Amino acid sequence: MSYKQYSGSAGGWGALKATTQHLFKSENVAKNISNLLRTNQDHGFDCPGCAWGEKGVPGRFRFCENGAKAVNWEATTRRVDRDFFAKYSVSWLNKQTDYYLEYQGRLNEPMRYNPDTDHYEPISWDEAFAVIAEHLNALESPNQAEFYTSGRASNEAAFVYQLFARRFGTNNFPDCSNMCHEATSVALSKTIGIGKGTVTIEDFEIADAIFLFGQNPGTNHPRMLETLASANKRGAQVVAFNNLKERGLERFTNPQHPLEMLSNGSTPTTSHYFMPKLGGDMAVVRGIVKVLLERHIQAQQQGESVFDLEFIAEHTEGMDEYLATVSATPWEQIFAQSGLSQDEIVQAADIYANAKTRIVTWAMGVTQHKHSVATIQELVNLQLLFGQVGKPGAGLCPVRGHSNVQGDRTVGINEKPPATLLQNIESVFGFEPPKEHGHNVVNALQAMSRGESKVFIGLGGNLVAAAPDTERVMAAMAQCNLTVNIATKLNRSHVNPGKDSIILPCYGRTDIDIQASGEQKVTVEDSFSMVHSSSGRVDVSGELMRSEVAIIVGMAKATLGAMNPVDWQSLADNYNNIRDYIEKTIPGFTQFNQRLDNPGGFYLGNSARSLVWNTPQSKAQISNNVLPESLLIHDVKSTPKRPVFVLQTMRSHDQYNTTVYGYDDRYRGVFGERNVVFVNPQDIEALGLKAEDLVDIETLWTDDKVRKIHGFKVIPYQIPQGNIAAYFPEANPLIPLESKGDFSDTPTSKSIAVVLTPSEVRQLVRSA
Ligand SMILES: Nc1nc2c(c(=O)[nH]1)N[C@H]1C(S)=C(S)[C@@H](COP(=O)(O)OP(=O)(O)OC[C@H]3O[C@@H](n4cnc5c(=O)[nH]c(N)nc54)[C@H](O)[C@@H]3O)O[C@H]1N2
Ligand SMILES: Nc1nc2c(c(=O)[nH]1)N[C@H]1C(S)=C(S)[C@@H](COP(=O)(O)OP(=O)(O)OC[C@H]3O[C@@H](n4cnc5c(=O)[nH]c(N)nc54)[C@H](O)[C@@H]3O)O[C@H]1N2
Ligand SMILES: [Mo]
Question: Which pTM was predicted?
């Protein structure tokens, strides 16, 4: 276990070395290399890593280190079979690390929990479907069931899943995006009338300036580094706002570029780097607008303007009220909350003003705060004042997480379904779907805790580890009459079963999916609203796993009957049939099956990009929010004597959400260790601590519950004073379920008020 500063660039030989190590670890080397060559290509599969888009240039071979890890993790030959479950009890498994659980290999047979023996035991597919149907049909109300979705599910699986749940009678669709980009969907729908980003990958090739807020592409969207480095090379300004110094936001060596690799060269990914305080981005943007407003007022005296008044008049509403609020916002509050100096804010404003076309991107550093919706609205305000939506090289770019999280929402995974979706379902399928809003993640977990929701079904994902307040979530699962997990790999959610519990093993993106009509493909939508097909390469015929679609169809037939409201089996037999229904039900999918033949797929379109504003006012809305009162503590019961820190939880370089591939975080210089906390060196000194001391971290909140994690190693790091950082899922027990974003209900994973105390507990060694 060690930490040392990483001196290399992101990507480069370090990435190649790590990629090769992962190929060997998966025990499936030759096959995996050929898989990698087919990732994100025509006739290959969509990378199960992130949702960053591709330009669709046929024959071009592109991969990234973390995509390679995702592919290899899934395409392993190791299996978690009936012997494994016979050997290990569920209580024993629950004591193992997240790394251990997933490392054991692919799940390959349906299993049912036996509470008497505390072991999972084999069950046939038909019996499993019958048990699920029995539990669902025994509920007093369909709203006592929760249908969770994680964002790897294909459009086809997600569409069939929502149809099953809605026909069953509920809109309870908690999904991973509730913990992810929900604030984006809420803020963008309200302001520009569509909950998605307005840019395409081509816009990045011509933008004059790219402003990146709260994201770590070096780890989480590595293919984006190439986009940023080439923008930088051609002279665009690439400006990062990040709470931490992240390597990938400084320099990048392209592993697909032989010259750079051989010369040990690298390209800067950003031209400017600002380090605001956690949650300070709204104040940063407010500051930029305030600088530019002052210039605008002066320009007006000379009959000129800084803002795009023509665009504002034609396309927007709300400017005057907003600008009055900007004028009234005191500079002291802007400096205090942003943590940036006047010079830095003016510099950022200058870069913005000197560019003609600007893209603004953001991810979890922006969406997982209490005031995330207001922060995103502030980003939108800035772009609208300068007419930066619906123009080439400009726009709004939320960088999505899971590879199909955007598509899942498009095809109906939505606990607050729009009226048109429900009308279309009714006209196409001839039944009246439920209209009342269903549960998001927080509502679902609260209802399960209260014993109101009794059946939990998870289409992928790992809610027990991904959700906040881990102990409470474990208790909520245990209380359910039935928990069902459709999954590729064993995880924390499976070893926290309900009273009855079933694991249904499914194919992943890399597997060949053969159904009655032959080999099937599925489709996904990337961050740029491009829909394309994906077909796996790994032969899993002869194994007992099934496709997600086949599993959902099995549950639906058993629960609702073979023909209610569709011939379910025909959907599983040929996914073209599902796509025909999607075409009839979801706007934008005209000639869905035919258009999939286009290389690179097809563009779903974006109303805001076409300057069509689907808001009630038919105009884009400039929002008027005041800055939050305080960023430090919301709702704390009593002020403690120790200094209060704001904690963010984030991903290491060796993980995919709750999937832990290893214990290194190369770019942050941490090796062999995950129980660490990144602290500013001056804060370490003030606390009377030194590097590598162990601390306990305890949450401050309004209730009496003690939320504390023990034995975390202090790592000195470039982070503003008063802010600290740790990894999720290890830090999830610290986040109260009720600590959530205004209007989004997203857990505040990037702002938790905590205190640090020297630890009495020896560090757990968490290796496999
Ligand atoms: N390899 C890999 N790829 C992934 C994932 C993965 O786990 N592994 N997860 C996928 C998913 S589901 C998602 S949603 C995305 C997540 O992608 P990211 O949003 O990049 O994920 P995080 O690791 O949470 O990183 C948050 C970043 O924002 C910064 N930050 C935190 N708080 C603030 C703040 O208040 N202000 C500012 N300006 N910066 C802040 C942090 O320092 C960190 O650099 O990645 C996707 N891709
Ligand atoms: N503290 C804190 N908590 C967070 C976050 C944070 O930044 N901080 N981030 C949040 C975010 S952005 C997200 S998106 C959520 C993620 O929440 P989830 O999506 O629920 O979690 P994952 O870890 O992505 O799910 C991993 C599991 O999915 C299953 N799986 C993998 N591939 C497939 C497949 O193809 N099909 C099926 N059926 N199953 C598959 C495997 O069994 C694996 O164990 O976590 C959230 N939680
Ligand atoms: Mo996410």
Answer: 0.94
